[in-house]
Amino acid sequence: MAQLKVTLIHSVAHRLPKQRKIVEAMGLHRVNSTVVQPDNEATRGALFQIAHLIKVEEVK
């Protein structure tokens, strides 16, 4: 299964509470923090909602 490398590039300060919860649930804490998540429907849906805050790369 493919993996996605997710990097937080914008702060979650002054964002909607739902967006803050998604960022926290993904394991991202500070700007430039990075996590690797599985590439599945649930992850893609969450990433879509915070797409303006993150950078996503595919990991082989």
If strands are numbered along the chain, what order do they take across the biggest sheet?
Answer: 2-1-3
Name the shape in a single word.
Answer: globular
Total strands: 3
Q: If you consult CATH, what is the topology?
A: Ribosomal Protein L30, Chain: A
Q: In percent, how helical is the residue content?
A: 25-40%
Bin the strand percentage: 25-35%
Describe the sheet with the most strands. Answer: 3 strands, antiparallel
How many domain regions?
A: 1
Per DSSP, the total helix count is 2
Which class of secondary structure composition applies to the elements? alpha+beta
Report the CATH superfamily.
Ribosomal protein L30/L7
Oligomeric grouping of the chains: single chain
Our Rg estimate from Cα atoms comes to 11 Å
CATH architectural arrangement: 2-Layer Sandwich
Short synopsis of the structure:
With 60 residues, the protein is an alpha+beta fold.
Helices and strands in order, then pairings?
Layout: E1 3-8, H1 17-25, E2 34-38, H2 41-49, E3 54-59
Antiparallel strand pairs: 1-2, 1-3
Subunit structure: Part of the 50S ribosomal subunit.
Domain Large ribosomal subunit protein uL30-like ferredoxin-like fold: 4-54
Protein name: Large ribosomal subunit protein uL30
